[in-house]
Amino acid sequence: MATWSPEALERIADADELRIAPRRGDGTLREPTTIWVVRDGDDLYIRSWRGTAGTWWNTAHTHRAGHISAGGVEADVTFTPVDDAAVNDRVDGAYRVKYGRYSGYVEPMVAEQARATTLRLTARS
């Protein structure tokens, strides 16, 4: 697995929105969906506000690969589920800081339903 370059990490993290296209089982990409992305240290995280009912999330969780676009960066990625409570707490904080101005939307993103869908984005080499 590759790591993010400092420039790519910053550009993606600073973007308000990320376009995500998970790979299906046959290797094709789903149509991109616009979602939020947050940073914790050198890692990027995403969640489904619909919880496990999110269609894009189910594809990403099942096949673990896809493509993202944010902040002018295009990258193939690996999706890794996160079940670490400390990481999820930090991701909650990152969502509140970055998207707090959208109070009606950020609270569902830090609720248990969304926390259960936390995925780490890792650049693919």
From TrEMBL:
It holds the Pfam family DUF2255. InterPro entries: UCP028498 (IPR016888). It comes from the Bacteria. This is DUF2255 domain-containing protein. It comes from Streptomyces violaceusniger. The lineage of its organism: Bacteria, Bacillati, Actinomycetota, Actinomycetes, Kitasatosporales.
